[in-house]
Design goal:
The chain is an alpha+beta fold. 57% of the residues lie in helices and 16% in strands. It has four domains: 158 residues, no CATH class; 78 residues, no CATH class; 57 residues, SH3 type barrels (Roll); 91 residues, Alpha-Beta Plaits (2-Layer Sandwich). A hairpin with an 8-residue loop joins strand 11 and strand 12. It is elongated, with a radius of gyration of 38 Å.
Length: 449
Amino acid sequence: MKPLSPDVFDAAQALWLQIRMFAKGMLLPWRLNQLLAIAALFLIAHFAAKPIGHWLTTWLRKRQGWTKWKLRLGILIQQRVRVILFALLAWILVAVMRELTWPSRSQLIALAASIATAWAAIGFVTRIIRTRLLRRLVRWFAWIFATLYFLDFLTVAENLLDSLALSFGEFRLSALTVIKAVVVTVVMIVAARLFSRFVTRKLAKNSDIAPEVQILISKVLQGVLITLAILIGVKAAGFDLTGFTVFTGALGVGLGFGLQKVISNLMSGFIILMDKSIKPGDVISIGDTFGWIEELGARYTSVVTRDGREYLVPNEDLVTGQVVNWSHTNDFVRLDLFFGASYRDDPHEVTKIAINASLSVKRVLAQRTPVCWITGFGERSVEYILRFWISDPTAGITNVKGQVYMAIWDAFKKNGVELPYPQMEVRMLRANRDEENAPHFQMTTSLKD
């Protein structure tokens, strides 16, 4: 095992020496008094936070007509009322003490107030990051950075992190470089996503651009900005990108095989947006799923059914599979109903009654006249097909079929048209006298009208 570099021990020793000097300074009488004052302020803020937070919540609920950003700001204040109250009380005490005594007598209280103010500000600013895990990581890193900065430990901490390094020939990778690269990259990605979100909102207000084109521009812009953000972040951290050519090439090949499905879904999403075969609001059927397109994502498409279920269909399935788009070119949809009638009924009257029954349903289009034809002569009935048109498939298919079936049922009952159904006959046969003197039973199924 390779021993640690002497630079690591020197940096760690410098950090430990500064910590000891800081702790020794805290033992001075006038600083102990400030520590007691800070503890007292923290207890006051801790016990006062709950009633103040409850009052603030009640007050916010009564704010009718407030915009969302005002309500969200009020909620953020309510969530951080403890640290805000502590910082406010600390600054008030510092102002009073500097009027009555030397500024050095309140130096530690001012330091605690500065750290608390920085923590509160970081809590507000990091709310712009939507991803919860990323927001927490950024918040904790910013809190640590601010604390080290105000305590004047930042320089020795940077020296320690810079001494923890690995060397690959002429390339040196330290913990400080990695942290800088991550910080710069995260900041650039957040800025890129905010800018992309801003452009998306602007595009949504432009009625001259089709929805699918808006989505395409937004996705392409977001991908380009995030890629540039990563490259700029890595370059700003001091990495020489030309030295990683071979590594990134091999990594790209590996990711290409490992993320084959993901890349396929991404490319399929762009194909769907380009050829406009499917767009938000279309009614589609894929397999047993029937619903309308709620959102076209980069990796999947959201399909919402009439029962409220939301299916996330991979874009690859929409490109390679068979999809029925009920509203691709227009909203007109023809539906087929199959039914049977008795041989004793006149087929001409049956078709006329069925057509008139379908026209009694409001959603059936009268301008596209329904038709009814005989499709065959079955064992127990004459088979018919009724075809009619609707113009609102988004309102559902099963329900309008059910309404037409019910109208046909009522019309047949009213006009005396019989609907055939299977019947069962049980015949009891007597055996010959020479055989056993016992009855024999025979059960047959007869499909009669």
